[in-house]
Amino acid sequence: MNRTDRLYALVEELRAVAPRPRTARWLAGRFEVSARTIERDISALQQSGVPVWAEAGRAGGYCLDKDRTLPPVNFTPGEAMALAVALRHVAGTPFGQDGAAALRKVLAVMRKDDAEAARDLAARVYLVGGTEPPPVPAVITDALAAGRVLRIGYTDRHGLVTRRDVEPLGYVGMAERWYLLAWCRLREAVRAFRTDRIVAVTVTAQVPPPRLLRGEDLDIPPDKLRPLALD
């Protein structure tokens, strides 16, 4: 069995017995590999977003959140956002209504808390223009969704790199690039950071105080601003 097939089989095995755990030794025997290989496989699954965790103790082992892995309810808030952004490109085409219907179906089968998190995230994302900008680092999106302070290295227009702590608030997407909107603790104000100029990102354990992101904070003419909504 190659590694890809084994990873898939691991998920299926853990789903079948969920919420009961399987030990690394048991899984190693089941798939005829070493316990160390199983630990590496589990780590790879966790890094890819599969909800697997370890339970300590004599009766412990690896567990899977079964509800989050059954198709199609395994959509995360970030995945729902990706669909919403992608489906904006079909607006005004013959498939516009179909795209909107597809997104409603996705939201309908998501876990209630995940759907609410997706709607909250969508309320803080704005689009300007219509062409595809460069991708945004995943760690930034994760921090925005999780509500954590970011420590970034940022290059200004003159090439000077500064280190600063920022509280992520949302995004503005334009034709050629994306901007991270955040409360900058260095400047004590809302600032827009070009994501392609962020040269280093660390997610801290700090949870920032609640802050509202208002349209007037964006310094963009209202007629140029199109909020991204999931409903």
Question: Secondary structure elements and their pairing?
Answer:
Elements: H1 3-17, H2 24-31, H3 35-47, E1 52-55, E2 61-64, H4 77-87, H5 96-109, H6 112-122, E3 125-127, H7 138-146, E4 150-155, E5 161-173, E6 178-184, E7 189-194, E8 198-203, E9 226-227
Parallel strand pairs: 3-5
Antiparallel strand pairs: 1-2, 3-9, 4-5, 4-8, 5-6, 6-7
Helix pairs in contact: 2-3, 4-5, 4-6
Q: What does this 3D model show about the protein?
A:
A hairpin with a 5-residue loop joins β1 (52-55) and β2 (61-64). With 231 residues, the protein is of the alpha+beta class. α2 crosses α3 and α4 (77-87) packs across α6 (112-122). The model has no long low-confidence stretch (mean pLDDT 81). Strands 3, 4, 5, 6, 7, 8 and 9 form a seven-stranded mixed beta sheet that branches. A two-stranded antiparallel ribbon has the order 1-2. The relative contact order is 0.11. The protein is built from seven helices and nine strands.
